[in-house]
Structures are given as structure tokens and as C-alpha cells.
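Supplementary Methods. Inverse-folding protocol.

Structures were first reduced to a C-alpha cell string of length 191. This string, shown here, constituted the complete conditioning input.
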């Protein structure tokens, strides 16, 4: 992987960089983190965001470059949660609670409600399905949404609701891509 700063804004550089690694013998090459929702904006940091059709078209060039040299192409789907400062979209960040972020202590999110959870799950499933269409072979699911847990779930523990939310998200992701097995997914939330 490695974050290069190419993201979806510099598709030719992204494809060439990952293609060189594939040509050099890497079995798989991956994007940097790829936020699935507009409310996961971490500008000015450049990510492989997957918000619009053009993003998938740009990332498909990377997939083609990897496949040309026999490597698998991977994408790291994510939601930045409390770490999303939103300077480009100006959306309010969302997270499981209103605890301020570790990296940006003045960044206080809105506590997610049921409609927020449903929207992020739908965004995640859409991103997974579109990633398959773009040519990705591997999807890694990570999220900063679980780093902002309510006080009773701190110290590495997740509430039942946290686990249920991410289990359901992985189920939606599998359904949207037509996958029945875990072979395509690298996720801590197995179902």
C-alpha cells in the first residue's frame, strides 16, 4: 500500500507507481485509504476517495496497471469518522459519540443516529460494488468510526451496537458485490 498522495486526483501517477511495484514482482498492490462518504473528507490530505463515478474511472487505471503485470489490485475502503475535518465538503463529522478526536481535539463530531448509520452502510456497500466493477480484486475494510467509542466502551472494548453496526456493514458489502465468501475481503468484522 503506502499513501502516496496520488489518490484519485493523480490517476496516471497512481497507476504508474502501483504498476512499477507489480512489475517488480509484488503479488498485490493497494491504494491508500479510500473514504466511502462525503462526510469522510480529510482534505488537504489526498486519499483515493470513492465518492463519484470519476473516482472509479481514475482508480481503474491502477487496476489495469496491476493486472498487466499479474498482480492483484486492492482498495482500502474506510470512513474517517471523528478524524474527518471536512474542509472541502464542510459537512459535520460523524462518529459513534461526540467525543473529540485524538489527532484534532477541536474536531467534535455529531453522534451518529440510525439514519447516519444506514447512510454510511449504503455508501460502503455502493463503494464495494463499484470497486469490483472498477477492477479491484481485494477490499480491505477499515474505519475510524470505531476509534470514537462511548466512555463505557473504551480500553479496546466495543459495545454490542458497535459490533452489530460493522457486522451489518460487511453483510451489506458482501451482498452488493455478490460475494458469499470472505476471500475478497480483509476485514476485522467477519460474519
Amino acid at each position: 500500500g503506502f499513501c502516496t498522495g496520488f489518490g484519485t486526483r493523480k490517476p496516471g501517477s497512481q497507476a504508474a507507481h502501483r504498476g512499477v511495484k507489480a512489475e517488480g514482482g509484488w503479488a498485490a498492490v493497494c491504494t491508500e485509504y479510500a473514504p466511502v462518504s462525503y462526510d469522510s473528507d480529510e482534505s488537504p490530505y489526498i486519499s483515493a476517495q470513492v465518492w463519484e463515478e470519476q473516482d472509479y474511472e481514475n482508480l481503474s487505471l491502477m487496476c489495469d496497471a496491476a493486472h498487466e503485470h499479474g498482480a492483484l489490485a486492492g482498495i482500502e475502503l474506510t470512513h474517517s469518522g471523528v478524524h474527518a475535518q471536512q474542509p472541502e465538503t464542510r459537512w459535520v463529522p460523524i462518529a459513534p459519540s461526540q467525543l473529540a478526536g485524538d489527532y484534532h481535539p477541536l474536531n467534535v463530531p455529531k453522534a451518529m443516529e440510525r439514519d447516519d448509520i444506514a447512510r454510511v452502510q449504503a455508501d460502503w456497500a455502493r463503494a464495494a460494488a463499484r470497486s469490483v466493477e472498477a477492477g479491484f480484486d481485494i477490499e480491505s475494510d477499515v474505519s475510524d468510526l470505531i476509534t470514537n467509542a462511548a466512555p463505557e466502551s473504551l480500553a479496546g472494548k466495543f459495545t454490542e451496537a458497535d459490533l452489530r453496526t460493522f457486522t451489518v456493514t460487511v453483510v451489506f458489502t458482501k451482498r452488493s458485490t455478490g460475494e458469499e465468501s470472505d476471500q475478497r475481503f480483509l476485514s476485522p468484522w467477519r460474519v
